[in-house]
TrEMBL record:
Protein name listed in UniProt: DUF3140 domain-containing protein
One Pfam family from the record: DUF3140
Organism: Streptomonospora halophila
InterPro entries per record: DUF3140
Disordered as annotated region, ranges: 97-127
Length: 127
């Protein structure tokens, strides 16, 4: 179903999703293929190289807003909610698994926030 415009709630979710997912699609796919993301991402089927959620996130990153499906909207909502829950974990309780869980959602917590006023412009280089 192709829509000319998104309803305001979905448009806001699109913005939140892209603010939360700070990895590009290819970066996320590579992450999901590494041992660092955990053994559950691998499948006995070579064509099934990443988790279903990972494939969904990568697919959404490759889409235009007007091409979203209801499944995409549900996936985006889940990613935003799960990432917010993980980011709310107190710093003293965060471990390596915490970072892995976030990166599996497409959020690298070690990547500087481009909107952060503490970051110097151009410090990260081109994406």
């Amino acid at each position: 179903m192709v829509r000319e415009r998104l309803d305001p709630e979905t448009a806001e979710l699109w913005r939140e999703f892209h603010a939360t997912v700070n990895m590009r699609g290819e970066e996320l796919r590579r992450w999901l293929l590494t041992d660092a993301s955990g053994p559950d991402t691998f499948s006995a089927e070579p064509s099934m190289d990443v988790s279903r959620l990972g494939r969904r996130i990568v697919a959404i990153l490759d889409k235009r807003r007007v091409d979203l499906t209801s499944e995409d909207v549900d996936t985006m909502r889940g990613v935003v909610e799960n990432a917010a829950r993980l980011l709310a974990v107190p710093a003293e309780e965060r471990g390596e698994q915490w970072r892995h869980d976030l990166m599996t959602l497409g959020h690298d917590p070690l990547r500087p926030d481009p909107a952060s006023p503490e970051e110097e412009p151009g410090a990260e280089g081109p994406r």
